[in-house]
Amino acid sequence: MLARLFVIFGGLFVLVLCAALVVPYFIDWAGYRADFEREASAILGRKVTVEGDATARLLPFPSVTFSNVSVAGGPEGQPAMTVETFSMDAELAPFLRGEVLIFDMRLVRPKATIDIAADGTVDWAMRPTAPFDLNQIAIEKLTVTEGEVALRHAAGGRSHLISEINSTVSAKSLAGPWRMDGTLKLDGLGTNVTASTGRAEGNGQMRLRLKADPDAYPLVIETDGNAGLVKGAVAYSGQFKISSVDK
Questions:
Q1: What is the torsion angle, in degrees rounded to the nearest 10, for the CA atoms of residue 16, residue 22, residue 27 and residue 32?
Q2: In whole angstroms, what is the distance from residue 105 CA to residue 230 CA?
Q3: Least packed by Cβ within 10 Å: which of 52, 81, 169, 235?
Q4: Highest-confidence range of 12-16, 108-112, 135-139, 150-154, by mean pLDDT?
Q5: Neighbours of 218 (CB within 10 A)
Q6: What tens digit of pLDDT does each residue of 43-87 get?
Q7: How far apart are the first and last CA of the chain?
Q8: Mean pLDDT across the chain, nearest whole number?
Q9: Are 68 and 107 in contact (CB under 8 A)?
């Protein structure tokens, strides 16, 4: 789900950066609010609205910030995702080679609701229609502050809350490999998490390694395998390892 968000914002930056090369510096950057809403909505397949401010600059490096971003499609007419503040800074030189290097991206209080149907399909599982090559966009550093994801599973009638997500993410390209280090709470249980992936394969599968160290228990959980989507449902095959540790 997070990767989908990166695709949206990566597309936004390509749009802004292209314009930066051909328009005067005194352009009204806030006018890109409508462009972002249109392009992000097309990529995600859901209506995206910027309800707050939209600011951007070209010097000393291209930078863009949006506040109160909302993605439609949640339960009972509520947003499926909101982001209090999204901001991003990038290098200009790689763009001249047809590449985009985002050296600092920040998501403040992103919140998402993910519904898993009785047959296992995920409502966010549709593939985005990215108007750019995912291999040409790299992220040196993405900081997520106080993120939250609500998971609702129809088959069991249960819900889980992943809250207080504070992490740092990097990607050699949007197609992978990715790396994430951070902390979160799963239904209130604090956990240190480290994850890394390989590159996305043609069949949609991706190598995934995950290490979770819960605060309340003297153990570490590790997984190593392949994850992906099969007919819209999340599938994983691999190994699980649980080790005891002294705390």
A1: -20
A2: 30
A3: 235
A4: 108-112
A5: 11
A6: 777 888 999 988 877 778 888 888 999 989 887 888 988 999 988
A7: 32
A8: 81
A9: no
pLDDT tens column, 83-102:
999 888 888 777 667 777 88
Q: Could you tell me the residue ranges of all domains in the chain?
A: 2-200
Per residue, the 3-state secondary structure of the chain, as one string, reads CHHHHHHHHHHHHHHHHHHHCCCCCCCCHHHHHHHHHHHHHHHHCCCEEECCCEEEECCCCCEEEEEEEEECCCHHHCCCEEEEEEEEEEECHHHHHCCEEEEEEEEEEEEEEEEECCCCEECCCCCCCCCCCHHHEEEEEEEEEEEEEEEEECCCCEEEEEEEEEEEEEECCCCCCEEEEEEEEECCEEEEEEEEECCCCCCCCEEEEEEEEECCCCEEEEEEEEEEEECCEEEEEEEEEEEECCC
Sign of CA dihedral 220, 223, 198, 175: negative
